Amino acid sequence: MSNILTIPDECESMIRDFLGTCQHNSKLYLVNKKYHSMFTICKPNSYDNILGCQLHTPDHYGAIITLTEVRSKYIRGKGKGKSKGKYKYKPISIHFQSRKQREIGEIYALEFGEKSHYCCRGKGIMFKEN
């Protein structure tokens, strides 16, 4: 006799296929104990609109980590007027671990300054000095 709360394996497989990678099913483990064990290895992370995890989307995850580290290092100013919300110190460059990570994170990296050029075989972004 099966439990009414148990989802057949075939249905679980279809649910996982439909939902896709971890960035879409990060809350699915709350529904069922079986899902909890499946998805606890997946640790989603985000930076603004970038979602990813080390297991399923390593390039997104790498871009998130790099941008988070840079953002925490260069704290936004709390001044008034023109200086409010701007960074007190700006990085000279940002270096990602791969070209793909740079492509994913580039739009967000530009919040730190105006791009001068790419460096390090396309993995880094150099900013213009103001």
How would you summarize this macromolecular structure in one to three sentences?
With 130 residues, the chain is an alpha+beta fold. It has helices spanning 9-19, 22-25, 33-39, 58-73, 99-109; strands at 45-47, 50-52, 93-95, 115-119, 124-127.
Written account of the structure:
- There is one protein chain.
- By secondary structure, this protein is α+β, with helices and mostly antiparallel strands.
- 38% of the residues lie in helices and 14% in strands.
- The chain has helices spanning 9-19, 22-25, 33-39, 58-73, 99-109, and strands at residues 45-47, 50-52, 93-95, 115-119, 124-127.
- The protein has a three-stranded antiparallel β-sheet, with helices on one face. Strands 1-2 form a two-stranded antiparallel sheet.
- Strand 1 (45-47) and strand 2 form a beta hairpin.
| Pattern of helices and strands | HHHEEHEHEE
Biggest sheet, spatial arrangement of strands: 3-5-4
Q: Which bin fits the share of residues in helices?
A: 25-40%
User: Tally of extended strands?
Assistant: 5
Number of helices: 5
Radius of gyration from the alpha-carbon trace, in angstroms: 20 Å
Topology readout:
Elements: H1 9-19, H2 22-25, H3 33-39, E1 45-47, E2 50-52, H4 58-73, E3 93-95, H5 99-109, E4 115-119, E5 124-127
Antiparallel strand pairs: 1-2, 3-5, 4-5
Helix pairs in contact: 4-5
Provide the descriptors you would attach to this structure in a database record.
single chain; 130 residues; three-stranded antiparallel beta sheet; 5 helices; 38% helix; elongated
